[in-house]
């Protein structure tokens, strides 16, 4: 990240304005709460958020970066849309794949918080990772999950985590699973997949917005047992990428 990069969008004289400094030192929770306020305050505050995004290019995307990008994405102002297209044409998460799988649609759905559609696309992408036979049957075997490239799982999980304020994603579910001693019977009610010993009915009983329990999405079919989920939660990607 250089001053020249920032200067392509606006004059760099106010890069580290008091507003910018205040935003940078806030806690993650306070930053998330402040973003909608900055969006509502107009151009000067938009510049703070755009500067923040440019600075974030030096770091791994996190939930604040994702929220800032989403908030700016919703502002229908040519200057902002041009900024995002020039500097973040694929969003803030790299859409990397070892299998040449296109994650653009999944990214677009998650940025717009269309979580139900994103959930469907995620299952489709997992089948694509497993191969043609899985695509035809529309579900995966646990042995196929074990062979998933870490790069692709990292991309899918990052998209969910970054664009859901850290509430959703396989890594989130895995941490909850570990917190209950790897006991799936305790995990299901915790993430809202079971209520009073009854499975949550798809799709109407699931919650498709950020008011859902942490770890609620994306969904995995448990009617055939837990082997697929167990394989996913024990995949090397989580240790490799420090999730």
How does this model look, in words?
The chain is mainly α. The chain contains 15 helices and two strands. A two-stranded antiparallel sheet has the order 1-2. Helix 2 crosses helix 4 (43-56) and helix 3 packs parallel to helix 5 (63-73). The radius of gyration is 19 Å and the shape is globular. The two termini are 25 Å apart.
Mean pLDDT: 92
Quote the distance from N terminus to C terminus.
Answer: 25 Å
- Our Rg estimate from Cα atoms comes to 19 Å
**Helicity range of the residues?**
55-70%
Q: Give helix and strand order, one letter per element, not per position.
A: HHHHHHHHHHHHHEEHH
- Any idea what the shape is? globular
Q: What's the arrangement of secondary structure elements?
A:
Layout: H1 3-7, H2 18-25, H3 28-40, H4 43-56, H5 63-73, H6 78-87, H7 104-111, H8 115-130, H9 132-137, H10 142-145, H11 150-162, H12 170-179, H13 184-190, E1 194-195, E2 198-199, H14 227-233, H15 237-240
Antiparallel strand pairs: 1-2
Entry keywords:
disordered N terminus, 243 residues, 2 strands, 15 helices, mainly alpha
Short description:
This protein has 243 residues and is mostly helical. The chain is 56% helix and 2% strand. Strands 1-2 form a two-stranded antiparallel sheet.
